[in-house]
Each structure stands twice: as C-alpha cells, then as structure tokens.
Amino acid sequence: MRASLIQIAVTEGESVESRRLRAASLVREQAGADLVVLPELWTTGAFAYEEFATGAEPLEGPTYEAMAKAASDAGVWLHAGSIPERAPLGDGSAEGATEGALYNTSLVFSPSGELVAAYRKIHRFGFDKGEAVLMGAGHELVTVRLPATTLGLGTCYDLRFPELFRGLVDAGAETFVLSAGWPERRRAHWTLLARARALENQAFLLACGTAGTHAGVPQAGHSLVVDPWGEVLAEAGPGEEVLTVEFDPAEAGATRERFPALKDRVLGLDAPRR
After folding, report:
1. Three-state SS for 77?
2. 81: enclosing H helix or E strand
3. E strands along 140-274, which residues?
4. What average pLDDT is seen over the chain?
5. Which of 40, 83, 130, 263 has the fewest CB atoms nearer than 10 Å to its CB?
6. Going by C-beta distance under 8 Å and a sequence separation of 6 or more, which residues neighbour residue 74?
7. Number of domains composing the chain
C-alpha cells in the first residue's frame, strides 16, 4: 500500500481559496498512491481560533467540492484532513450535531470522489478556551473499510487518549489515520504518543501534521508513519513536504498473531468495577 501524507504549510498572507486550490493540486500529484492524507484545519489553521466561525463551511461546502474532485481526478482514497464545519440551520441538523454549532470535522473520499465518512473530533483542545469552547464535541468512533485495510480515524489531541484507539481496534481498525495541527513546542510528545498508539494497538499509524505558523504558533511538521512494532518507517522534516511511504497493511494482523498481546486484555468498558 502506498500512502502520501501532504504536510501543507499554513501561513499568513495566503487566502483560504488559494490554499484550497493548492491542496487540491497536491492531491492530484499523488495519482498512483492508494491513500492520501491532509492535516487538521488546514484551511484556517488549527490555532487561528478567530477564523473558525468566519471560515466555517457546511459539510458539503467548497472544501468538500474541491477535495471530492481532486480524489476523483487522482483516483485515490483521500483523507482530506479536517475543516471547521457548521451544522446546517433551518431544515434539521446533521445527524448527531446541534444546529448551527461548529465541529472539527474530517472528510474521507473514495477514488470516485464519494464522501464515505465524516469524523467529528471527540477530544477538543484548549482547557476551557479556544477549540474546547468554540467547537462542539463529536461522539462517534469512525472506521473506513479500504480494499487492503480498515482505517480508524482520529484528530490531533485525540492522540493523547488511548481509549479512543482501543475502541477503534475493537471496531476492526488495523491502520490509524490522524490529521493534526500539532505545535512545535510539543513535538517530542507528538513522536512519543504516535509510536505508543501504534505499538500498544499493534497497528500502523499515519500521522499528518502541518507546517508553517498558525496565529503565531509554530507548527511541528514531522509527519510520520509508524509500524505495529512502534518503529518509525518514515518521517518528514519541519517544512512543507509530501511524505510518501509503502507498507504492507497485512502486517498489522500478522503482528497480532505472532505476538497476541491484545488477546490478553482484561480491563475495559465491560470489566467488573469495584
């Protein structure tokens, strides 16, 4: 399986429309890949809180249209990163959403350009400010079945919550895809947590971050692909870059058979409590 992670730079001075067109062009350049991944909130910037409301779109808005077309043109499965989604008003809200609320929502398209999944970020960052108060929380784990593997979706701050990834494993995930806008000052955490989530769940993890600076917050970059043993297969640098790697997703299942640690799980949501 060939995956391309587009570590796009989000910088001041570039319009959202210009960056949207540039991202679509970069996706088209990945024709021949099986899966292409974009980062979190790349239209506005993950830390550009004041841009969330003005940059919010309906689920099937301009980014949806541009990414659906790009996925179809390139013939790839596309995790289009996340957008600030505004749930529709008037004729009923989207399923599981509050009318008019904002969500940090990831979009996944098939090679024909069909939207096959939307994941609203469950864990919002900010400690009672920023994203944590400006956006609503998602409530559903989301997996996507590809011909070669089942993807489990997460977004940025989700990486710090291992129970989410355990839930994705229970739902059949063998490969995690995480879009992020991770700050440079916590880059060591980014690498450590990515390796831990892959290792403890015996899964591949594709983590795509942004480059550039969001509202004065330098981004970590360093997108990476980690194998089920926690080894980094490929890692980007700090700037804008397309990180491409080939891996065999069947190795996740083979690893779980050779070293069946997941079968020894005892504690969980259904475990007896005292």
Report:
1. strand
2. strand 77-86
3. 143-145, 150-155, 175-179, 204-208, 211-214, 217-218, 224-226, 232-235, 241-246
4. 94
5. 263
6. 27, 28, 29, 30, 31, 33, 36, 111
7. 1
CATH code, domain with 98: 3.60.110.10
Instruction: Please provide residue 214's backbone torsions phi and psi, each rounded to the nearest 5 degrees.
Output: -105, 110
On whether residue 274 sits in a domain, the answer given is no
* Structure tokens, 121: 């970020």
Confidence grade of residue 89 (pLDDT, cut at 50, 70, 90): low
Domain span at residue 204? 2-262
Please write the tens of the pLDDT for every residue from 197-254. 999 999 999 999 999 998 999 999 999 999 999 999 999 999 999 999 999 999 999 9
Whether residue 268 lies inside any domain: the answer is no
Q: In the numeric block, which tokens belong to residue 47? A: 């830390």
In a domain, residue 272? The reply is no
Residue 63: its H or E element = helix 62-74
Kindly state whether residue 134 falls inside one of the protein's structural domains. Answer: yes
List, by residue number, the catalytic residues: 40, 121, 156
Q: How far is Cα 249 from Cα 114, in angstroms, rounded to an integer?
A: 23
